[in-house]
Design a protein that fits this description.
Blueprint (H helix, E strand, L loop, with lengths): L1 E4 L6 E4 L8 H17 L6 H8 L3 H8 L5 H5 L10
Antiparallel strand pairs: 1-2
Length: about 80
């Protein structure tokens, strides 16, 4: 296990995860909400639109997109999407 800084709240903690135990439930909830949104919406919106529609911050959406679970999203045609990576 490593000493890390939580990607959500910035507190320091020791674990293998990228977020602290306090933030883990919200992280899981928002990731599932994002996955559900992507499954229900065939056309991809901008990060700002997804944020408005889901209530998930643009910062967290950009973090989620970088995860391997969403790698197929980046393989799609994203020429009309404004993703701030």
């Amino acid at each position: 296990m490593d000493f890390k800084k939580c990607e959500r709240c910035g507190c320091f903690f020791v674990t293998n995860s990228s977020v602290c135990p306090k933030c883990e439930p919200k992280e899981t909830f928002e990731m599932q909400k994002f996955k559900d949104y992507l499954n229900q919406n065939i056309s991809l919106d901008s990060i700002k639109d997804v944020s408005i529609n889901t209530g998930i911050s643009e910062k967290n959406l950009n973090r989620f997109i970088k995860k391997s679970e969403f790698s197929n999203l980046m393989k799609q045609d994203t020429s009309n999407i404004k993703i701030n990576l």
